[in-house]
Amino acid sequence: MIPGMTYCIGVLLQEGLVMASDSRTNAGVDNFATFCKMTIFERPGERVIVLLSSGSLAGTQAVISVLKQRGESPDSKGHSIWSARTMFDVAVVVSDAVRQIERRDSEYLAKSAAPFNASFIIGGQLKGEPPRLFRTFAEGNFIEAGSDTPFLQTGETKYGKPIVDRVIEPSTSLSDAMKCVLVSFDSTMRSNLSVGMPIDLACYATGDLKLTLRQRFAPGDTYFAALSRQWSDGVRQVFRGLTPVPHQSGPTSEQQSEDRYIRFKSPT
User: Fold this and answer.
1) I want to staple 194 with a disulfide (CB 3.0 to 4.6 A). Which of 5, 23, 56, 159 is the partner?
2) How far apart are CA 5 and CA 3, in angstroms?
């Protein structure tokens, strides 16, 4: 089973959804490969569902294959991406597929250095309900984003999260959210080699019931390079403009601490 770290993020806004994933999979420092981590299920006018996958590549690809086969099978008995009545039901369908693959492979991976690991971010809208966003875990359970937590991440999240925390709120525009998400990828890639381009970006406007935008940013992309440069220059400019640390006259804090220690130890 091919292991791999990735970075995926889904953002739930009043205007819709923004979702993105990188494409790097690695099995060691000298074995990098590129695989798309974004899968789209779309029937214009009825439903749009975007899946972002993180974890072992063999596991996540097996789950996606199960979902596609169930959707094409007349014997799925309503338990498929296409027949799900709500986005919650879609999350259940994905979780059940994760558990099916885990049961199939767990015995053989029990002694492996790369155990089964597959998690997904699931976002979209079905006709008759608002857009919703979920994140599943390797165990098959899942959580849902809301107004208090309007974004969900998986994979190598720690480098991009501080930026998203400062910018994203439910009222953020789709345009600003896309820029924020791309900046979070730029920051992540600067700090971690296991995340890399191409970056797949999807944007969905509430009520459209068809994908508004899907774009891939390959290495050397002009817009992404300019965005990265503008962000770096802007951070440096803001940093230089920060108020200097105040200089306090008199004894230093170390001296004050030493004085207090001496007074405490001195006999009365």
Assistant:
1) 5
2) 7
Tokens of 208: 């459209």
Q: Model-level pTM greater than 0.70?
A: yes
pLDDT of residue 27: 46
d(CA 11, CA 176): 11
CATH topology of domain 7-240: Glutamine Phosphoribosylpyrophosphate, subunit 1, domain 1 (3.60.20)
Distance CA 154, CA 6 (A): 8
Q: Considering only CA atoms, which of 146, 252, 195 is closest in space to residue 8? A: 195
Average pLDDT per run of 10 along the chain, which is 268 residues long? 71 98 69 83 97 88 91 73 95 92 73 74 97 91 94 92 95 98 95 88 97 95 97 95 85 60 54
Contact 155, 138 (CB under 8 A): no
> Could you please report the per-residue DSSP string of 11-80?
EE-SSEEEEEE--EEESSTT-EEE---EEEEEETTTEEEEEEEEE-HHHHHHHHHHHHHHHH-TTSTT-S
Query: How far apart are alpha carbons 33 and 99 in whole angstroms?
Result: 26
